[in-house]
Write a structure and sequence with these properties.
The complex is a heterodimer. Helix content of chain A is 0%, strand content 44%. Chain A contains no helices and 15 strands. In chain B, a hairpin with a 2-residue loop joins strand 1 and strand 2. Chain B is globular and about 35 Å long. The two termini of chain B are 18 Å apart. The chains are: A mainly beta, B alpha+beta. Chains A and B meet through strand 6 of A and strand 1 and helix 2 of B.
């Protein structure tokens, strides 16, 4: 639609045939103005005669469209749930991320020793090797320094592989450099469903 | 693993505490991670023995309307 053909819409809410008012996207098709998807709704309050947002009226007319939000849009998967690690034994945990199109991995540590974090092969839990241009090398190992403060670490910035889709599962191996005597360790996946 | 009988008192106390990160104070009641660390501090301060734990072990002691409670 050219600029000369653009219609100036009123600043007031559009009024439908039954008296309900609402805001909507509009387009012109074959020379005819039409509303596409209503994006806001108003209810006529019978007691006051005012148009109010849905839910505000004590005596509303039925809204033109009843919409239900889908609710949660990001899932939180807890891999390590503030676990008090007190030895140097490697801890392996696998998390299913096949139902997410986007994931973020976040670690929080208050352990008083540094801790390494590895991404390992989901099926064999062995080292993943990546091509560096000259040969196959083990995927780098992230290390989080000892800290009494609960700092959060976005692991995607160390493992850019996590930014790419296609992981059925992710296998984490977490290993302290020495036996911690204080603090705990948390690792979460934030997933945006498919 | 059985938790110490003082766990409820420790959790109730921990939920009233704050912790500092980068110079700012945050309530323990909004962090599962810091709940564990703060309950451990209570146990240590009162000479209460407890094997290594994680946050899931403290869920039964959290108020039903706690935003950090799971399960």
């Amino acid at each position: 639609m050219g600029a000369a053909e653009q219609q100036k819409f009123s600043q007031y809410p559009y009024q439908y045939g039954d008296g309900l008012r609402g805001a909507a996207l509009a387009q012109t098709r074959n020379g005819k103005d039409e509303l596409i998807t209503p994006i806001a709704f108003w209810e006529l309050d019978a007691a006051t005669g005012l148009y109010l947002p849905p839910g505000m009226s004590s005596n509303p007319r039925k809204p033109r469209v009843e919409a239900t939000l889908t609710g949660r849009q990001v899932d939180v998967l807890t891999v390590f749930d503030a676990e008090e690690i007190r030895d140097t034994k490697p801890r392996d945990k696998t998390v299913n991320v096949s139902s997410y199109r986007l994931i973020r991995a976040v670690a929080i540590s208050t352990l008083n020793t540094s801790v390494s974090i590895e991404l390992r092969s989901p099926s064999e839990s062995n080292v993943i090797r990546v091509w560096d241009g000259d040969g196959w090398v083990p995927l780098s190992v992230a290390s989080i320094d000892a800290s009494g403060n609960p700092r959060s670490y976005l692991l995607n910035t160390f493992f850019p592989e996590l930014n790419q889709p296609g992981w059925p599962t992710i296998h984490f191996r977490v290993t302290p450099s020495a036996a911690p005597s204080t603090g705990s360790f948390t690792l979460q996946i934030w997933g945006v469903p498919l | 693993m059985a938790m110490p009988e003082e766990t409820q008192v420790a959790v109730d106390w921990a939920l009233q505490q704050t912790y500092a990160v980068d110079g700012e104070e945050y309530p323990v009641s909004e962090s599962r991670h810091m709940l564990v660390d703060t309950v451990r501090r209570y146990f240590d301060d009162h000479n209460i023995g407890c094997p290594p734990m994680d946050a899931t072990m403290l869920d039964p002691y959290l108020p039903p309307d706690s935003p950090i409670r799971r399960g």
